[in-house]
Write a structure and sequence with these properties.
The protein has 11 helices and 10 strands. It starts with 6 loop residues before the first helix and ends in a 5-residue tail after the last strand. The chain is globular, with a radius of gyration of 22 Å. It has about 300 residues and is α/β, with parallel strands linked by helices. A hairpin with a 2-residue loop joins strand 9 and strand 10. Helix 2 packs parallel to helix 4, helix 3 packs across helix 5 and helix 6 packs across helix 7. The chain folds into 2 domains: about 80 residues, Chemotaxis Receptor Methyltransferase Cher, domain 1; about 190 residues, Rossmann fold. Strands 6-2-1-7-8-10-9 form a 7-stranded mixed sheet, with helices on one face.
Amino acid sequence: MQAVVNPTLEGAKQLVDGEFPFTIADFRMIAAILHGDAGIALSESKATLVYSRLAKRLRLLGMESFRDYCALIESKGGGDERLHMLAALTTNVTRFFREPHHFEHLKTKVLPGLIAKAKAGARVRLWSAACSSGPEPYSIALTLLSLLPDAARYDIKILASDIDPNMVAEGLAGVYGAAALEPVPTAMRDRWFKPMAARRGEACWSAGDDLRALIAFRELNLVGDWPMKGQFQAIFCRNVVIYFDDATQAKLWSRFAPLIGPQGVLYIGHSERVSGPAAQRLQPIGVTTYGLVEPAR
């Protein structure tokens, strides 16, 4: 005879042996909220990570259990804390010129044609769709400036968006230490960044005005509403959808496709692949690089 599991007892099982009680029911509630708010899928194998990142919030709030924390984030007045929870559980791994083959492709295959169009008066828009603390959009801008030093004179803009307001604020501040800027060639750094006073013994640089002028930082949830109406000639959405389930991934690719202009390009992460209906319109043209296929007339 198959054993009958009492769901109440199962949900009360402790997942982590730590300072605060943390049950399966607590984890599942947090995972459901994170999936609903941001599209991120969490398995129970991530329980220790969730505990370690949110325990800091419980201490700050003076709470004694994750049950109390879950009650807060589910309450009408818990909206601000849901944002803090989202920020704590969002992975923000980034660096300048990460996956350099994308920037080489942008520089040699995409930007020359776009620059010619911009000089003729055309509108050019690029999008860093999960910009984290800013190295990706700044890398896009640096690549552009290497070909067109006066790019700010033309109708060229880079949208840099992220779900985490803390990351958007860091990108907008545009201040980076020597270690973060190591992938940036010295001549490029010295031209487009301004030296600042050292922080914690590390030399720092601030993005210069010409570099900042190309980028608009905005808070944006990729599974929420998108206010953008126009198209982009290149979209970077890299190492993001790996945190989504298959259905959410397919939906996101399908939302990107109509926003990519003629001959437009989508750059994705090294372990990602375009899936679902969008795979008919977005075809591989290089390593984790997709081009828009125009529908037959």
